[in-house]
Amino acid sequence: MSATPSAMLPLAAVVALFTLTACSSAPKSTDTASRSHETLVVQQKAPIFVDVDIKAAGKSVGDLYIFGAAVTDSKGRSGSLTGTLIVVDAVDPKTGKAWETRLGDLTFILGGEQLLVKGASVYPRADREMEVNKPQVRAVVGGTGSFVGVDGDVSTVRNADGTYTHTFRLLR
Predict the structure, then answer these.
(1) Contact at 8 Å (CB) between 40 and 156?
(2) HSE (CB half, 13 Å, CA atoms) of 165?
(3) For 13-47, how does the pLDDT look when each residue is reduced to its tens digit (9 = 90+)?
(4) End-to-end Cα separation, the chain, in angstroms
(5) CB-hemisphere CA count at 13 Å for 83?
(6) Is residue 126 a contact partner of residue 109, using CB atoms and an 8 Å limit?
């Protein structure tokens, strides 16, 4: 089944906005050795999801998952995680297995400050959540407060009990 060009416009607009905001931060030094490194671990409770079924009924490219969860970090700050996941590919081209690639836009709010994360991850098509104990890595693209000017990455693991562990590697 192929979508008409006009039916794909809303999805194209969301993907373009996602790409523009991901690329809008100021350039940083590529010499990571000269920058300070910080590890921050965030524990997340099980998320609450809202599924938005776009265009075709059932799971398909363009579907949107909106979620939120309570979090606590290794510095004792509590807060929340809010995010969106957009399905952009529905089958692994190498294996033909039913996996989905989803673009993620996540905001961690810790002690009133924000840490922003973006990137693509692969999910089992039959599940809205990540596979248990299979890390996914996304880019840290900035933040507010003490997170102004940071970048780096975050490795996220879904735990067997439905919680998540996010291990940030922050560069300043």
Answers:
(1) no
(2) 12
(3) 444 444 444 444 445 555 667 899 999 999 999 99
(4) 47
(5) 25
(6) no
Q: At 127, phi and psi to the nearest 5?
A: -130, 140
Model pLDDT, residue 125:
82
Q: What angle do CA 141, 15, 102 make, to 5 degrees?
A: 75
Q: Is 89 helix (H, G, I), strand (E, B) or coil?
A: strand
> Would you say 150 and 142 are in contact if contact means Cβ atoms under 8 Å apart?
yes
* β-bridge mates for residue 113, sequence order: 110
Q: Which pLDDT band holds residue 102 (cuts at 50, 70, 90)?
A: very high
Q: Into how many domains does the chain fold? A: 1
Q: Give the alpha-carbon dihedral of 6, 100, 168, 144, to 10 degrees.
A: 20
* Domain span including residue 70: 5-171
Q: Average pLDDT in the 100-127 region?
A: 94
**Closest Cα partner for 62 from 20, 4, 15, 123?**
15
Retrieve residue 134's tokens.
């299979």
- Among candidates 53, 45, 134, which has minimal Cα distance to 86? 53
Give the pair of three-digit tokens for residue 50: 């809202």
The CATH code of the domain that includes 157 is: 2.40.480.10
Which pLDDT score is estimated for 57?
A: 85
